[in-house]
């Protein structure tokens, strides 16, 4: 994956607008946060292969950290802290936020076909 | 301890790298004694968060990356690896009896003299606890006369208060290089995990990684009660 370029990501969004697409949305601080530091908490959530349609997609942010909002008929899909992106060999838009040790903190992925 | 008295060891953990962080020294000792070791690896750790530094994996490629790392470690430790095909972070939601039967079918086939797994309830990660519980159940279901010994590994911070001193303590110091080699075969995980240990809140000074990794400790499971 490479550091996010807002313009390129924004352009890529357009090919997924107003279509049935599959979403992987995730955030995590790992299963060991509390084990290694009693003052922190294990927190995480993911949804994989939610089938959605969005009519609007926007990326915002600065200094290497970005937010994405996808507007659906009845609600929103939102992710914050995204740093990297790529379009993979299967045409899927993969976005993720990593800390400085390469640990994933958040991910938002969009595909026209279900994820494996 | 005489490693040679065992005829086959089966290690049951959920993630590629559990075997290296948790038992690479023990496995090495058994292999040096000529005892075959089979690793039943529950998942591919595909929901892990370490993507390498600099980044070389992503959520969608991580399963392939870690599968390859697992194959590399099989060579380093000279063990057979069997992948069970569950999905990372979901083992606690699966039917425990179903997993136990699945494991038992492998154990019936291999007929090990020793099974090593996580100590259910004291293994920090929900997958560790769930697969450990299923492994204990699988061994329990075997005929007592033909039942392997089971070593359970506890890694929670409260393990000593709750369970007392471990029955088996293996000092990996003389073979620590081999253990490090196994851990480093898990390229995507090793660096960040080592850093995590060095930065732990109860960090006690220099070389926290070596201190945490030196001893591999197990409790002998008692099936009588
Ligand atoms: Zn693990």
UniProtKB/TrEMBL annotation, chain A:
Lineage summary: Bacteria, Bacillati, Bacillota, Bacilli, Bacillales
Pfam families registered for this protein in UniProt: DUF1806
The organism's place on the tree of life at top rank: Bacteria
Organism, scientific name: Melghiribacillus thermohalophilus
Protein name, as recorded: Uncharacterized protein DUF1806
InterPro entries: DUF1806, YojF_sf
Automatic annotation (TrEMBL), chain B:
Pfam families in the record: PIG-L
Cofactor(s) listed: Zn(2+)
InterPro entries linked to this entry: BshB2, GlcNAc_PI_deacetylase-related, LmbE-like_dom_sf
GO molecular function: hydrolase activity, acting on carbon-nitrogen (but not peptide) bonds, in linear amides
Entries under PANTHER family matching the protein: N-ACETYL-ALPHA-D-GLUCOSAMINYL L-MALATE DEACETYLASE 2-RELATED, N-ACETYLGLUCOSAMINYL-PHOSPHATIDYLINOSITOL DE-N-ACETYLASE-RELATED
UniProt-recorded name of the protein: Bacillithiol biosynthesis deacetylase BshB2
Organism (species): Melghiribacillus thermohalophilus
């Amino acid at each position: 994956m490479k550091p996010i370029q807002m313009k390129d990501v924004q352009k890529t969004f357009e090919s997924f607008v107003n279509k049935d697409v599959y979403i992987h949305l995730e955030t995590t601080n790992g299963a060991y946060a509390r084990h290694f530091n009693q003052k922190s908490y294990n927190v995480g959530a993911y949804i994989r292969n939610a089938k959605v349609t969005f009519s609007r997609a926007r990326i915002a942010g600065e200094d290497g950290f970005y937010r994405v909002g996808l507007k659906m008929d009845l609600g929103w899909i939102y992710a914050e802290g995204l740093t990297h992106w790529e379009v993979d060999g299967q045409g899927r838009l993969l976005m993720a936020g990593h800390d400085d040790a390469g640990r994933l903190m958040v991910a938002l992925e969009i595909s026209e076909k279900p994820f494996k | 301890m005489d490693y040679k008295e065992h005829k086959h060891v089966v290690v049951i953990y959920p993630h590629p790298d559990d075997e290296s962080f948790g038992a690479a020294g023990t496995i090495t000792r058994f292999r040096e004694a000529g005892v075959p070791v089979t690793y039943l690896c529950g998942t591919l750790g595909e929901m892990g968060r370490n993507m390498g530094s600099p980044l070389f994996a992503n959520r969608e490629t991580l399963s392939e990356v870690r599968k390859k790392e697992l194959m590399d470690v099989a060579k380093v430790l000279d063990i057979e690896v069997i992948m069970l095909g569950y999905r990372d972070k979901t083992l606690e939601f699966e039917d425990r009896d179903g997993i136990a039967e699945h494991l038992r079918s492998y154990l019936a086939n291999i007929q090990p003299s020793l099974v090593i797994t996580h100590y259910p309830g004291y293994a920090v990660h929900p997958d560790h606890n769930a697969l450990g519980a299923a492994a204990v159940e699988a061994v329990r279901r075997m005929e007592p006369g033909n039942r392997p010994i089971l070593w359970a590994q506890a890694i929670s911070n409260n393990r000593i208060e709750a369970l007392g001193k471990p029955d088996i303590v293996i000092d990996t110091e003389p073979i620590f290089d081999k253990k490090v080699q196994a851990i480093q075969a898990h390229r995507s995980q090793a660096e960040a995990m080592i850093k995590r240990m060095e930065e732990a809140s109860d960090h006690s000074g220099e070389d926290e990684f070596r201190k945490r990794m030196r001893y591999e400790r197990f409790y002998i499971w008692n099936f009588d009660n």
